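Reopening: structure tokens for the iron/sulfur cluster complex, inputs below.
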Amino acid sequence: MKNYILDKNFLKPFLRKVMKKERLIAPIEFNKDIIFDFIDEIDEITTNFTNSIISPKRFFFPQSDTILEYEKTSHVKVQPIVSYERRVIFGIRSCDVYGLLNLDKFYSLGYEDIYYLQRRENVTLINLVCSDPCENGFCIYAKSGPKAEVGFDLQFTDLGDKYFVEVGSVKGEELIKIAELFFSKIIEKDEERRFEVVLKSKSCFSHLYVDLQDAALKLKNNLVSENLWQELADRCQRCGGCNYVCPTCTCFDVVDKDIEGQRGRRVRLWDSCVLGGFTRLAGGYNPRSRIEDRVKRKFYHKLSYEIEKFQATSCVGCGRCTTVCLGNIDTASVVRRIVLGE
Ligand code: SF4
Ligand code: SF4
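Re-run output (same inputs, fresh job):
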């Protein structure tokens, strides 16, 4: 695949061209936070951010998603609702690109989830390499950043007045063809500058060291004290925030809504494994009614069971759970405590 240079003066004209062909999603400022949203005006887009408060996974796995409508007449009519809209996400960070690779495995292993996979197929990802790490991120130790090695269609590295553009897929190459004149050839100096930018960014992570592998080993070998789960449970507010902001959390509930007579719609909603109702069964029995069991299971799932299933933890080190958790029960600090044997 080729590499190019895009002068920053051409970024907006390029994205305008993209908007004429596909729906554009990009980072914007909202109530002093950064979120990803659909773009109507190109000037809404910001590139001055570390990462968004919530991951862009909602464009693939929405918080509330009507998956089918049904009607019972002489027979039952079921109409699946699948999105085929073509979209481009500009500005996604490396950790979230790896988060999507994680979701890909979950939603295609054994059963192929058409609602997720169809959206995924129709989205082109333009990744922005992080020149400065975000406050709580530890992607470098989760091998998911600050620069992505796989998973992007185009990857932009900020070289000051221009972007170094890597093409990662045919979809990426097709996007460049929309506005080929804006892109120029790279020269050796550009490669060197890109290398320096990434190296400088990597060197800023040292204070955030998180040893996911060692924590996974300790969990697998049952070397973690039950007291730790009890203490974390005492501090957990059961808000579900950690799951909702996480780019790799996949759990959902399914409910029927707007039921009128013999018709209705089936909706998939985000769920959270730390909430009391998550494992409650019909009839009322709940195998994980105690919060300490739910917190414990959450970390076993993310850091240990996922290795057995997918050969990798399902934490990409985005640091969002550190930002949102009211009880400091974030993955980075829990991993540190597991490693220290507390
Ligand atoms: S964000 Fe923190 S307090 Fe809220 S459910 Fe998750 S662990 Fe508990
Ligand atoms: S567990 Fe926390 S740090 Fe890891 S990917 Fe999820 S939100 Fe990010």
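The chain has two domains: 3-207, 212-340. The mean pLDDT is 94. Marking as resolved unless the reporter disagrees.
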